[in-house]
Specification:
Converts 2,5-diamino-6-(ribosylamino)-4(3h)-pyrimidinone 5'-phosphate into 5-amino-6-(ribosylamino)-2,4(1h,3h)-pyrimidinedione 5'-phosphate. It catalyses: 5-amino-6-(5-phospho-D-ribitylamino)uracil + NADP(+) = 5-amino-6-(5-phospho-D-ribosylamino)uracil + NADPH + H(+); 2,5-diamino-6-hydroxy-4-(5-phosphoribosylamino)-pyrimidine + H2O + H(+) = 5-amino-6-(5-phospho-D-ribosylamino)uracil + NH4(+). The chain has about 400 residues and is an alpha/beta fold. Residues about 260-295 have low confidence and may be disordered. The chain has helices at about 5-20, 55-65, 90-95, 115-120, 130-140, 140-150, 180-190, 200-205, 235-240, 300-310, 320-330, 340-350; strands at about 30-35, 40-45, 70-75, 100-105, 125-130, 150-160, 165, 195, 220-225, 245-250, 310-315, 335-340, 355-360, 370, 385-390, 395-400. It has twelve helices and 16 strands. It is globular, with a radius of gyration of 23 Å. The protein folds into two domains: about 5-140, Cytidine Deaminase, domain 2, CATH 3.40.140; about 150-400, Dihydrofolate Reductase, subunit A, CATH 3.40.430.10. α3 (about 90-95) packs parallel to α4.
Length: about 400
């Protein structure tokens, strides 16, 4: 049977459904599944929070006997291996589904092609690649972690009309309006982790949680590049570390053991050339060059106090994103939002480790002391294609992506 417009319509619905649990399914992808019989949806589900149960068995259970002879629309190839749950391909066979339509083939070597082969061997018709580009976009975090051994990285920037992202010494500066800020909260809610530099953490004292009513529990892990453990104990991040996880990435040079541990190059079998510190980011200096607060307590005391507050400290050159990102992937982090600091943004851009750029452009003008944005719409790096433009109030969002 050839793919029809009805197939694309149902797959689009399955993809929309899959986004419901983005950032909440741990190491498993958030997959959407519809069971359709005679043009009517008789069962639907998305991968459960935490990653189990998978979408297919939930949708099949909802459909019950109506699944026999039906068509299943699945955003990712059904798994074929026995893990902590039985293979989803077996469940589709057992319920007597007649046809399975798939958006994206699973790159996991335990599954890739095997799920499709299992279904076909059971006499089930299979069509793959339906709305594949949209499906890959919805599965971007999972696919990037599987194929590149790192999280999918989104860089979010809000830029004023005169190309600034903030003002020196002014802390947080409101550039975008409430509609755009609400959209950023939604982005945080579907992301595994959010990252800022220590300069932003000190000057802005951000919370970095999801503040949309009803979505607070979907706040991402918060990561701070902090080579010298300068994060103030009075900061909002430290004060809320027991409610929402905070990871501080400190220089391996200050590791208590005197050697790398936690997120380390040696632990990953790599020995790359280090990326030079950001301009102004020398030992004891924050992003932007401001001197750190006077050491009221020594390094060991700061370490002890941070850990007592619930902050996790890992030791890895903060300017080694090509080491940091794979290490985060080993912790099950599939998507990362880089949200704070012009120099931190430039670090990831220059390393070629940004997959998506969300560029908000606002009509406000920032005057004296403005911090220049590391990019604007006229100098998007090569390899990115514009994928959309939206307006949120008076603010314009342009989105750019690399191919997956």
């Amino acid at each position: 049977m050839s793919v029809t417009p009805h197939d694309e319509s149902f797959m689009a619905a399955a993809i929309r459904l899959s986004r419901r649990h983005l950032g909440r399914t741990a190491t498993n992808p958030s997959v959407g599944c519809l069971i359709v019989r005679d043009g009517v949806v008789v069962g639907q589900a998305v991968t459960a929070v935490g990653g189990r149960p998978h979408a297919e068995p939930q949708a099949l259970a909802e459909a019950g006997a109506a699944a026999r002879g039906a068509t299943a629309y699945v955003t990712l190839e059904p798994c074929s291996h026995h893990g902590k749950t039985p293979p989803c391909a077996e469940a589709l066979i057992a319920y007597g589904v007649a046809r399975v339509v798939i958006s994206v083939t699973d790159p996991d070597p335990r599954v890739s092609g095997r799920g499709i082969a299992m279904l076909r061997e059971a006499g089930i018709e299979v069509d793959a690649g339906v709305l594949e580009a949209d499906g890959r976009r919805s599965l971007a975090g999972y696919l990037t972690r599987q194929t590149k051994n790192r999280p999918y990285v989104t860089l979010k920037l809000a830029v004023s009309a005169n190309g600034m992202i903030g003002r020196e010494g002014a802390g947080q500066v409101a550039i975008t309006g409430p509609e755009a800020r609400a959209e950023v909260q939604a982005l945080r809610a579907e992301t595994d982790a959010i990252l800022v530099g220590i300069g932003t953490a000190i000057s802005d004292d951000p919370l970095l949680t999801v503040r949309t009513p009803g979505l607070e529990a979907q706040s991402p892990i918060r990561i701070v590049l902090d080579p010298s453990l300068a994060l103030p104990l009075t900061s909002k991040l430290v004060q809320t570390a027991r409610d929402v996880p905070v990871i501080v990435v400190a220089s391996e040079e200050i590791s208590p053991s005197g050697s790398e541990e936690g997120l380390s190059p040696s632990a990953l079998g790599a020995n790359p050339q280090p990326i030079s510190p950001l301009v102004g980011e020398m030992s004891g200096r924050t992003e932007g060059g401001a001197t750190l607060p006077a050491a009221a307590m020594d390094l060991d005391s700061r370490r002890t106090a941070l850990e007592a507050a619930g902050v996790e400290i890992v030791y890895c050159n903060p300017y080694h994103p090509e080491i940091l990102l794979p290490a985060l992937a080993t912790r099950g982090i599939s998507s990362l939002l880089v949200e704070g600091g012009a120099k931190t943004a430039r670090l990831f851009l220059e390393a070629g480790l940004v997959d998506r750029i969300q560029l908000y452009q606002a009509p406000v003008v920032i005057g004296e002391g403005g911090i220049e944005s590391p990019l604007d719409a006229t100098d998007i790096p090569p390899g990115f294609a514009q994928t959309g433009t939206q307006m949120f109030g008076e603010d314009r969002l342009d989105e750019y992506e690399r191919g997956l």
